Each structure stands twice: as C-alpha cells, then as structure tokens.
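yo, Ammonium transporter is done. seq:
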Amino acid sequence: MDNSTIGIAYQSNPPSVPDWLNKGDNAWQLVAATLVGCQSMPGLVILYGSIVKKKWAVNSAFMALYAFASTLIVWVLVGYKMAFGDRLLPFWGKAGAALSQKYLIHRASLPATEHHYHNGTIETPMTEPFYPQATLVFFEFVFAAITIILLAGSVLGRMNIKAWMIFAPLWLLFSYTIGAFSLWGGGFLYHWGVIDYSGGYVIHLASGVSGFTAAYWVGPRLKSDRERFSPNNILLMLTGAGMLWLGWSGFNGGAPYAANITAAVAVLNTHVCAATSLLVWTLLDVIFFSKPSVIGAVQGMMTGLVCITPGAGLVHTWAAIVMGIFAGCIPWFTMMVLHKKSALLQKVDDTLAVFHTHAVAGVLGGVLTGLLAVPQLSSFDLPVPGEKGTFYGGGISQLFKQIVGALFVIGWNIFSTTAILWVIALFIPLRMPDEQLMIGDDAAHGEEAYALWGDGDKFDATRHETIVTNTGGDEDNMQRQLNVMGARGVTIQL
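structure:
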C-alpha cells in the first residue's frame, strides 16, 4: 500500500513531520511549557492579587501580567539567543532574533553546549532535542517570565509601576540571560559541571537575590502596610498556589527536553518534596505558634518546590523527602527566627519574603543536589561525564562547584539589579510617593479590585440621589423615586 491510499497522519513522511521530529517529545514539551506558563498567567497573577491587602490587589496582579507579556516580546527579539545562542563570552550568548521561519522550523539546538577535548574530539555533544526550535524558544520563555514575576514579589505594595515597566525587560536582558547562558546555554559553569537541573540557581536564587536587592533600593512600604498586610482573599490565594504547585510538573518534568525516564522521576520527586516541606512547615507553626497557618503552608509548599528544582531528576525519591524536610526547616528558621534578629533583614522590606522562599531554598537545593545526585540518573541528563553527588563518589569537588555557582549567581544579580535600578532612578522615582501609597490601586491605575460601594468612597451627589422622608410618610412618592433610581444607588436621610 503506497502513501496515496492512506491518511496523511499515518503516512511515513508527512510534510510537516521531518525524520528528526519525535511527536511524543514535542507534545510533552509544549504541554510542559504551557503548564509553566499557567504558573505565571494566571497562577501568580491570582496569587499576587489575593495575598496582598485589597488596596494593592490590582497593582500586584498587573505587575505580574505586564512582566509576562513584556518578557515574551523581548525574548523573541533578542533575549533567547543571548541565553541559548552562539557563545559571545563565557557567560553570555550573541543577541539575535528568534522570529524567522527558517530558524524556528529547524531542529532545536543549543550550539554553545558542544565541548571538545584539546585534541579536537568531542567531549560533550551539542544538545539537540527532537522537536523544532520554536518549541524550545517557547519553553525557555516561560522560565524567563516566571523568574521576573517571582522577583516582583519582593517589591509589591510600593514600587512605581512605570519604573517596573522599564525594569522588567532590562533585568531580563542584563541579568537573567547571563545566568541562563552560564548554567544552561553552554557557558563556563555549564561546562565546568555545576549542577542546576531545572533552575534552582538560574531562576530561584536569581529572583530571590535580585528581589531582595530591588527591595533595598526601592525602599519600604508605608509603616501601616508593613505592620498589617493581611491577604484580601485567602481562598483565591490557594487557587493561585494550587496552579503553581501542579504547574511544577512541567517546570521540572520538561527540563530533560524529552518525555523520558528523567522526566518521570523529576515529576514524582517534585511533588513528594513539596508535600514533605509543606507538612514540616505546618508542624513547626503548630509547635511554636499553637496553630497551623494557611499562608505558612503555602510558604512551605513553595520552599519544597524550589529546593527540589536543582536536582529533581537526579536524586532518589527518599532523597526528595530528605530535601523536603530541610526545605521545611531551614527557610522557616531564617524567616521566623533569623529575620527578627538581623538588622539588615529587618531593614529591607521584602514583601512576600522571596529571599527566604527562593534564595535560601534555592541555595539549599543546589548544595543538597551536590551531595545526593545519583550516578545513573546524572548520566542520563548532565553534560559532563562522570558527574555525581559527593555521597556517591563525586568528591568534595562537586560540592565546591555548587557553592561557586551559587556565589556567581548571587554576585552577578546584586550587581546587575543595582546598576539597572540606579539608571532608572535617574529618570523615574523607584517608589510611589506616600500620598499614592495611602490610596493604592486607585492612585496607581484608577481601578479597584472590588466594586463595593462605600468602601473608602466619598459621597458624590452626581452619582447618588437623596430621598428625604418625613413623618407624614408619602410612601407612594418614595416608591416612585426608588423605581426611577433603579440600581444607581440611593441614600436615604431619615
């Protein structure tokens, strides 16, 4: 039977399915990218909009929404190739557009990942997934977007929205792309053997450190907001947190660039570690504060997800439980105990404690991965032959590499974030004026999250009619006025 007698979907060579395309890998990678995208939009948009005070709901949600959209455009224009293109410097790729059909429909590749021995033979082959470049461009975009949105959590409730609109794309270009290329795209840390399976350093450590740095330069919230910043909707906050948790299946499951064994192990380990960390954090809240906290549980969930990310596909599942225990304890201690004793941590107003939940948990996960990475799982995914955890024969060198990698990410993000904000501050104030901070969303956007009459509104005679009653009680006349008014709002003076 020749191809002309069967449906095109079942032909051996349909026009849009070249020999190198693996349909399963391509489908999984697009699903994984969409799951990670849903973590940001709408996941973190909902989470940010509900975990803050009501007067900051719109502003917080919009900061996440804007970052998501602006990142995509900058990413396809120049950002992707700066992070995953040809090598320009040991820590940076050559800028270029990822927009043409010629580039996007060819097999995906990361050209800088190829490495040769001194004699010219290949030590590390080029990474070439079995799907088109367009799939990889989109997959890596959602990681870049969520990093900037996580950073935003440190400056909610006071950063000038116009300054944020400039900061987000600049930080993507001059901070994120350098970390991504260095650790993932074929930079010096990638070839040296620093392990960052899916972004414990590139995403979480970077967002935590940069967020803390930005919070320092932007300045604090109003004193009243710092003292009382209760969520406006805890149930909706849980909805966003749930999308974040389940979306992590794509976050860590998509990191191998294939629907393979590593992806399966990574997904299971991710959720085991998150659940363990949530339970440990909640237990500590009960022991020391006598009651479980929903917000605390969400923080514990987050630290577990972050901690497992550097090694999700590289460790045993029992090791994921161990990592979850540490993820529930160490960031809890830094947030609940160390924070109150440190003058620096007290001074810097990190709104959502991104430093503790992402920077601390990210470093913790990177170090634990350096200890616990299993040889066989590591051989499936890591670029440097023979990479494995210290406990499995990797020696102290692997732990040393993890620490050096963390220090590079910390140092570069402090420097780049500071430089970007200094430049922006020359033209635009980084912090809203106090009179706008007193009002919140209405001052920043002219909008409010909830249309509840009388919630801080002043009486406007042009919008509301006044009905005066008297003891005579002309009820028919009052009813006629009510009927005319309809739903416009009525104030009755007795």
